[in-house]
Amino acid sequence: MLETIATQAEAVIAAIKANLPTVLTMVGVLYLIHIFNWFVGYRLNNLGIIPRHARGLLGIVCAPFLHGNFNHLFFNSIPFVILTCLVLLNGWVAFIYVTVVVAVLGGLATWLLARPGSHVGASGVIMGYWSYLLVNAYYQPSWLSFVLAGVCVYYFGSFIFHIVPTSEKSSWESHFFGLLAGLFAAYSFPYFTVLVMKDF
Question: Of the candidates 122, 112, 123, 124, which has an alpha carbon nearest to the alpha carbon of residue 51?
Fold first, then answer.
């Protein structure tokens, strides 16, 4: 039993090492976009989610790539790298599905219900990854899913405070709706694999 777990743990570490360059490349793209955004005076942030405005719908796609300042991006980068690596342990299909569901559903809910303004940042997607990993331990129980959920609770438990209004500059709405979208992604992914992926 212990040998099996040790072998699986080695496979997990190897998978994280294999995926890390891709994840760091993703972060690098975010920094390149941000540097250009900074250079043009953050004009790209007009492409964020602008609630209840038609052009704000474009922000559902654009907002996760845009940030308010370098601090905003930096403090999103660390959990993004860690949580993305953890979600990728479930495979690229799961990662893409969770990312699309969280970005679209969380972004659409933000567009419908959030305060006026331009909502930008990857934190809504990050919250979705966090909640997905927690709930996945329930729907897909295994030693790995429980370990990942434990990591999320131990290191990122304070995320729960990001879903309540704390600052006018913080889009708590995107955090809240991203979290809900992550819950839905965890619940729906097994059905997605059965209904959609069965022929692949």
Answer: 112
